[in-house]
Amino acid sequence: MTATAKTVSGSPRKLGYYDRGATPYFASRADQRFSYCLFVPEDYEIDGQDRYDLVVLVHGTARWAEHYRSAFADFCRRQRAIVLAPLFPAGVTAPGELSSYKLMRDGGIAYDRVLLDMVAEVTGRYRLRGDRFLMHGFSGGGHFSHRFLYLHPERLLGVSIGAPGIVTLLDVEHDFWVGLRNFEQIFGKPLDLAAIRRVPVHLVIGAEDKETWEIRLTPQDSWWMPGAERLAEANRLERMAALRASLEAHGVACVQDIVAGAGHDGRAMLEPVQAWMATQLGRVRAE
Question: Residues 263, 207: contact at Cβ < 8 Å?
Answer without folding.
Answer: no
